[in-house]
Amino acid sequence: MTAVIDREELELRLARRLNKAQMKALKELLELLGDPPDWYRVPQTFWEASGKALVSVIGSIIEEIYVMQAEAMLAGFGGIGVEWDLINQAAVDWARAHAADLVGKLMQRSYEFARQAVADFFEQGWTMGDLEARLARVYGAQRAEVIAVTEVTRAAVEGERATVKELEKYGIFMIEIWQTENDELVCPICGPRHEKREGDGWTRDDGPPAHPKCRCWVNHVMKD
Question: For labelling, which of 21, 63, 65, 181 has a CA lying 20 to 30 Å from the CA of 122?
């Protein structure tokens, strides 16, 4: 399989939606905190609602990518009547579960970061502008970009892996080969894995993605 289809467009779309949701959450958080900020004014319902919004944004797009990449891979096996209902259901199940797990971790980090920022407000004599600037680190565009790049990679790889599993029903067995851009920007983690087969220095637990903002992908070849 080639690199992720329409990667730049998908990354940009996901990053924009994430950033919009995060900016809305940041505005609401600041309003709830008040001036001076009071951490106990922020109810648990705020964190729950913010998390649900992120799950919705991330889940819908990674599900789309999963199916898109599966379709592209299966285009080379046109004579096989793959059960698309199974592929689509797998996409829904995976996207929901992964988005919920990912957002759960993100929200926990946001909660702890925000709580510490409010404590620092008083300990270090910050202004409300200082507090907002600190919170923007986890609610800003940079975080949205990191998540978008990483999750586009992950969804594409997972979609292909589901396709490989489906092809095994027809006696077609394939193995993954790690692919990088193979240029000066490739990181020390992924560089040594370029064009290496699964099991040759890496396993599926290693990725792709191997790290935040990883843009690697996998090719598949017939097993010997």
Answer: 21
CB 134 within 8 A of CB 115: no
Tabulate helix, strand, coil % of the chain (nearest 5): 70, 5, 25
What is the full DSSP assignment across 8-64? HHHHHHHHHHHHHHHHHHHHHHHHHHTTTT-GGGS-HHHHHHHHHHHHHHHHHHHHH
User: What does the pLDDT look like over 151-206, one tens digit per residue?
Assistant: 999 999 999 998 888 888 888 898 999 999 877 778 999 999 999 999 999 998 88
Q: Could you tell me the residue range of the domain that residue 57 belongs to?
A: 7-171
Specify if 224 maps to a domain: yes
pLDDT digits (tens, 9 = 90+) for 101-160: 999 999 999 999 999 999 999 999 999 999 999 999 999 899 999 999 999 999 999 999
Structure tokens at 23: 């900016």
The whole model's pTM is what? Answer: 0.92
The C-alpha atoms of residue 130 and residue 117 are separated, in whole angstroms, by 9
Kindly report the three-state secondary structure assignment for every residue of 165-217.
HHHHHHCCCEEEEEECCCCCCCCCCCHHHCCCECCCCCCHHHCCCCCCCCCCE
Which domain-ending residue is among 171, 187, 208?
Answer: 171
**Which DSSP symbol is given to 84?**
H
The Cα diameter of the chain in Å comes to 69
Contact between residue 14 and residue 61 where contact means Cβ atoms under 8 Å apart: yes
